[in-house]
Specification:
disordered C terminus, five-stranded mixed β-sheet, two-stranded antiparallel ribbon, 2 domains
Length: 474
Amino acid sequence: MRINLLGENNNKANALTVFVVTALFCFIGGHLRMPQELSLFWPVNALLAGMIVRFPFLHRSGIYLISYLAMVLNDLVFSGWASQSFTINFANIIFIFIVASLLIKHSMPVVGLRRPGKALQIFPACLLGSLLSATWGTLAEGATIGENFLPVWSDWVSEQFSTGVLLLPFLLTLPARFSLHLSSYRLKKLLPAVAVMVSIIAAALIDGAGSLTFPLPALIWCAIVYPITVTSLITLITGVTEIVLVVNGVMNIQGNDELLAMSYLVSARLGIATVAISPLIVAVSMDAILQLNKQLALRANYDFLTRLLSRSGMYEQLRQMDDSAPGNLHSAGVMLVDIDYFKAINDSFGHDSGDAVLEEIASRMRSVIGDQGMLCRFGGEEFVVVFFNHERAALFQIAEQIRHAIIMRKFLLQGNTVGITVSIGIASKTRPETNRVETVNALISAADKRLYHSKRNGRNQTSPLVETESEQPL
């Protein structure tokens, strides 16, 4: 049984889910408080903003009101705040609303973040949300414009901004179905993650303001090796670890603060937020390159016109089948389908009409074959269909279905109805002793001879191997 906690038309479930998530993470954030005036980590704002961006149907006033009430209720029960909780928690809603509005406005689905330009939109959105949220929150705390305003305001800004830029990339790139195959991460692939840990230890030993950036090279290495979701998670863990080390005095980044009164925690948060952009941009760039490579490979393996497998694509699939499941073949069969008088069609109606004929014939063949076999445009006006574990009689029946599907409906070419036929040659082999690639190669050669037999005998017919021929080794 599958339970959908969020759905576009499931308002009650949406409201309950948002309320529970808000209350739960407010409770967690409250227990992460350190001896600072504000919490060290406040994940609920970034989490809710990420939820709303991923599910834009949550971007409604009612959902924000439910989140606000959950925050207020948490403070009344666990923090002992009274009227102040109503004003301060409005600052959290400001951050959530601004970040979600800006990212939804710029079309920020999971796939969209994989573009470097889209990834960059997280930073100005979080910065603007942090500035406005901090201004309201600081005033709500009773701070006045003066000496005590800047420390409180900077604490708000750094907290909201650093949490947002650390959490949102991970939340927005996390696939709907996330599975981590640990077996694929060999020792060599674990080296970037190990390098991050070593660099954090080195930063703690060396100290100084610049020590916060020590993990940056290792994080960029992670971005090159790992997927964007894994890189975002490692960046999040690194940032949280460095903040904890700074707060507990393990990393000493204190410098001369005579020019600007700013706590070391604020400095740590802002520095880490700035560092976070580098591995993220590299990650989305690498992801874009990988996607481009996949598209190029796809174009090489598929025929652009008919959207069928190309010759190279057919052999690539056969090789993959040999690698994943060698042997286990009861029989193999090949059909070679050739359009009759195709050159005359091109000469009479033009190459555009010839292309339209190829597309339509591919479509009709696909509707007949379905998932029974592997359909490929072999070249020019020739198509190849590969079957495994089909009887000879079944192959002949399918070939005749293909032929009749093309005959039964005439083609409309430049206002003229034209009857088009195909000739088909079939070859099959029971219990082939070679791998799939070699078997299909041999069968194509044999089917080509049967295709020639169909052409010679008047076209528009199917010629299978006769029994005496089929018993001979290919």
